Description:
The protein has about 475 residues and is an alpha/beta fold. It is built from 16 helices and 16 strands. The protein folds into two domains: about 1-135; about 150-425, tm_1862 like domain (pyruvate-formate lyase- activating enzyme).
Amino acid sequence: MADVFRLFYGDAPIAHGEFSGGPSKEILAVVHRAELRDGLWKDTFSGAGKTLSFSSAPQGRTEVEKKRLRKRQVKLGLYALLREITGMRPAWGSLTGIRPSRLLYEQMAEGKSPEEAAKALVDVFDVSPSRAALLVELETMQRGLRVLPEGTFNLYIGIPFCKTRCLYCSFSSGEIGDGHLVEPYVEALLREMDLCRAMIEEKGMRLRAGYVGGGTPTAIPRPALEKILDRAKKAFPGAVEWTVEAGRPDTIDRDMLQMLRDSGVTRISVNPQTFSDATLRRIGRAHTGEDTVRAFTLARKIGFDDINMDLIAALPGEDLPIFSQTLDRVLDLAPDSVTVHTLAVKRSSKLHEQLHLQGGGQHGLPPEGEALRMTESARSRLSQSGYFPYYLYRQKYMAGNLENVGYARQGKACLYNIGNMEETASVLALGAGAITKWLFDRELRIERAPNVKNIEAYIARVEEMARRKRKLLFSEESGEEASR
């Protein structure tokens, strides 16, 4: 239920239990009463002088499904009360999950058209018509790409090093420093690759799409990255797509790009996040907007015809005009895909730490509603320029409770991103902090095998990480082992 409260009250403290105090402007006390009577659930929610009551029939066939759908009923009731109290209507309505598209496909599985399914999300979950329409556009782009051919999997390789750590970053990556961990990390990664190659051959599976992320893979020396790519292509041949996150323009030069091209990489990401140099300094990125232009132009000259660019809406110190200027520069460059992220203030980020130390001060964050205006502007302008949404996901603590959306030109949607975000593809994940996710279709379930996040621990325990994957891939009763 805490996620529903956060839709309206952000990161305010939440407590569950008995409340004996009287009315208070500082404390919102919500009471939920429920009883099953005459075959119906009777739910009453009260708070801030308002009371709402609902009746609903129990749903679901299995016990797990019944529990899940009952929780959904209660969340919808709580959402209705909080909307009544605050007068707010979040863009995604009562939805708090990472993948809103899952509900669209759930409705379509019942025989509804995409448009009918979207209307159900508006009617049942109070999703805004704008976001429901976004899901319909996304479904159109995903047709024929969402589900992998039988016997295939996707591969993720994590390079957890960056030149500097961005203010908003919460990933399990480390600043590269003097680079003393790079060589032992690469050797451990190659060892894990060799061990997993044997498993995949034993399973008789083939790779569809590979993705090298981080961190910033291009932050490590070129020969080290070349060694990783060479081993990966030999261990897991046949992929129709290979992506490398060349995200930081200050890590890209002609030799690096030529090596990526010669290694068979088909798609790269060159990520400005913003073209405002003042913002780049503020968020801890050691490059300028012009560095991004230089890197992108060089990549085009070398022959890359599938380049993504990432932007972030609602960065500290930015407003709609600044964001629009960034969008102008991106559209001038005409990449093949554009990913528009909404700033998420993660608990493990430096930004969250600074906000906390300032006693809740906003650190120059845009005002309420600005993130929505930015993302709506991006969607409109990208659509006018021939880009369409092809994958979408949400995170906790996002500005405006919004979303991250990948837009692409026709024929340029990233296969790895679709399979990973929709969880319609098994993903073999290598490296520190990487999480393997395997689909078991007969049971309609996903099992996970996480690698430890700490780089030194990963190096020391790489054989154990491979054993976790073997247990997952070959045991009938696989279970997730704790990442510690």
